[in-house]
Amino acid sequence: MGYSIRKAKLEDRSEIQQLIAESARGLSREHYSDAQIEAAIATMFGVDTSLIEDETYFVVEEAGQLIGCGGWSRRRTLYGGDQYAHRDVSYVDPDSEPARIRAFFVHPAQARKGVARTIIDRCEEEAKTHGFKAMELLSTMPGVKFYESCGYVSQGDLELELRDGLKLEFVPMRKELGHR
User: Fold this and answer.
1) % of the chain exceeding 70 in pLDDT
2) Residue 23: which of 59, 63, 74 has the closest Cα?
3) β-bridge pairing 134-140 and 99-106
4) Cα 126 to Cα 110: distance, rounded to the nearest angstrom
5) Mean pLDDT of 70-90
6) pTM for the model
7) What is the pLDDT of residue 54?
8) What is the DSSP string of 15-79?
9) Angle between helical axes of 34-43 and 13-27 (0-180°, round to 10)
10) Which of 33, 67, 91, 120 is deepest in the core (most CB within 10 A)?
């Protein structure tokens, strides 16, 4: 492992946004059309500043370059960057509601090298220390197998409208956290 993980900083936003776009364009083509990918980048996939401010968003670096990002949240919203207007930033109750896994993206050249696993392990550990007993997420189609390998279980499927009649298919997933 030649990379390191750290909490994202506000000054990382433009580099994170670039990583998100590269990841979506490079890893989503088997599941989504170019038009869907570009619409998702413009309307939904993006930096959520509240995650950085809450100190629950991480970046993975290798040789000074961001190669992965992702986080967890105590807030109700399950998806969407700053540009997505329909976000609920109120807090969930850890005693009765799951924490959220949010905005995981890996550079295409770093896929399947443990980057996302490093981030998700950190997220789950932190959520447990904050009293959460479960996690939920909304997976893009390319991420489903990864999340299943981490113990997440599909809760059905969902299509969200992006713009101009374009829709994107997602899979809501959940995991009960074991307490050590």
Assistant:
1) 97
2) 59
3) parallel
4) 24
5) 82
6) 0.93
7) 96
8) HHHHHHHHHHHHHSTTTS-HHHHHHHHHHTSS--HHHHHTT-EEEEEETTEEEEEEEEESBS--S
9) 160
10) 120
